Amino acid sequence: MVKQLTNLFKLRIGIIMTITAVVALVVTPGQSVPMWQIAVLALTVLMASASAGAFNQYYERDVDHLMERTKTRPFVTGEFSSDNPVWLISINMLLVVAVAAAAYTLNGLAAMFIFLGAFFYAIVYTVWLKRRTWLNIVIGGASGSFAVLAGAAVVDPQLGPIPVLLAMVLFLWTPPHFWSLAIAKHKDYAAAGVPMLPVVKGDHAASKAVLWNAILLVSVSVLPFFYGLGWFYLFGALSGGGYFIYRATQLVANPVPKVAMVCFLASLVQLIALLIFAVVDVMVA
Fold it and tell me: What residue ranges do the domains of the chain occupy?
C-alpha cells in the first residue's frame, strides 16, 4: 500500500518541487522567515504536488495501461478503484487543504502560486495539452516555476529578479529534462498515442531540441550571479549545466534510449547542483 501511494502521489516529483520552493525561500533577499513557516511551505507544496500527481494518474488511467512505464499504476491494476468517488474527492480536498493552509499561515500570493502549480500540471498539462500537442511539456512545464515563486513570495511578495530568474530556470529545465525521458520511452508514448516531441518529430530532432534548450537553460541559469548570488552559485550553475550540455551533445550524436536516460539523469544533476550551490552561496555570504 505504501509503495502504491508513493506511486500515486508521484512523491519523487513532489519532493523536487518542495526542495525548489524551500531553496527559493532561502536565497530570496528579504525578511527572516521562522522555521515553522518554512515547514508549512514545504508541506503545502508537497500536498499540492501530490494532489496534481494523483489527478494525473486518475485522468490518464485509460492510456497508462498501454505504456510499459505506467502499466503498474494503481488505477490501472485495479488496486485503487477509479469508480470509487472517494478517490477523486480526496485528491481535490488535498489541494484545497494545502492552498487554504498556505493562505492562512503564509500569505495569499504564496497560496496562489501553490494552487497554480497544481492547476498547470493537473489541468493545463494533463487535461488540455498532453494528448493534443508536442508543446504540452513546454507550456505545462510552468508548473515547476510556481513552486519557486511560492517560496520566494513567503519572503518578499514583490518578487525581485533572483526568484523570477530561478522560476525561468525551472521553466526552461522541464522540456529538455522530459524530452530526454520521452526519447528513452519513445515506444511507450507512440503506443499510447501521446504526441511527445520524439513521437511527432523523431528522436534526432528531439535530441537537437534537448541540446539547444539545455544551452538556453544554462545561459539563463548564470544570470542570478549578476543580481546578487555569488561565486559558489555560479560554480554550481556552470558545472552542473556544463555536464548537462555535454550529455545532450552525446545524445545528438547517438539518440538511442540508453544515451537518452543518461541525459535525463544529467538534467537532474544540473538542477541539484544549482540548488545545492545556491544554498551554499547564501550560507557562506
Answer: 1-157, 160-285
H or E element at residue 55: helix 35-59
pTM across the whole model: 0.93
Q: Decide which of 1.10.10.60, 1.10.357.140, 1.10.565.10, 3.60.60.20 is the CATH code for 1-157.
A: 1.10.357.140
> Does residue 228 sit in helix, strand or coil?
coil
Low-confidence ranges of the chain (pLDDT < 70): 1-3, 5, 285
| pLDDT single digits (tens) 209-244 | 999 999 999 999 999 999 989 999 999 999 999 999
What residues contact 283, with CB distance under 8 A and at least 6 apart?
A: none
Q: How many CA atoms lie within 13 A of 57 on its CB side?
A: 29
> Phi and psi for 229 in degrees, rounded to 5?
-75, 155
